[in-house]
Design brief:
Number of strands: 2
Region (Disordered): 1-25, 122-146
Pfam families: Terminase_7 (PF25673)
Helix content: 25-40%
Biased composition (Basic and acidic residues): 137-146
Protein name: Terminase small subunit
């Protein structure tokens, strides 16, 4: 079975003195990296809509801040080609390889935990001047009369 086993417990006590630092990236939704090249597919074929969406999500992801070199984006482009083939031709046998490749960039919370990558969300005030991402449940119950 492919993969690296279960993610390490983030609260585990390390016995060695040189703890691996956690990398923090800020979600800013800026567009980074190149667009999908139109000449990468044979016979003037267009990218599958799911692959375009997947690519744009990576370009806007906080992880894109860490992808600073051309080889980083080349590796992701190779993965995009597999993603396109999977969606356009029903080649679902590519799904496992795509998952393993996306794992290297921290695609899921478990992947980010394993990479010691923390995504910090910017505080965006809602209409009440409070951060929209955090809700004080006691205050919410009070407002609802409970």
């Amino acid at each position: 079975m492919a993969g690296r086993g279960p993610a390490k417990d983030p609260n585990a006590i390390r016995r060695n003195k040189d703890a691996i630092p956690t990398v923090k990236v800020q979600a800013d939704h800026k567009l980074r990296g190149p667009e999908l090249p139109e000449d990468a597919l044979p016979d003037g074929e267009s990218w599958h809509v799911q692959t375009r969406r997947w690519w744009e999500n990576w370009r806007r992801s906080p992880q894109a801040v860490q992808m600073m070199t051309d080889p980083d984006w080349d590796f992701l482009l190779d993965t995009a080609l597999m993603h396109h083939k999977m969606w356009s031709s029903g080649r679902w046998d590519f799904a496992a390889e795509i998952r393993l490749r996306a794992q290297k960039y921290g695609a899921t919370p478990e992947d980010r935990n394993r990479l010691r990558l923390t995504v910090e969300l910017p505080e965006e005030p809602d209409g009440n001047g409070q951060a929209g991402a955090v809700i004080d449940m006691g205050e919410r119950r009070g407002r609802l009369g409970g």
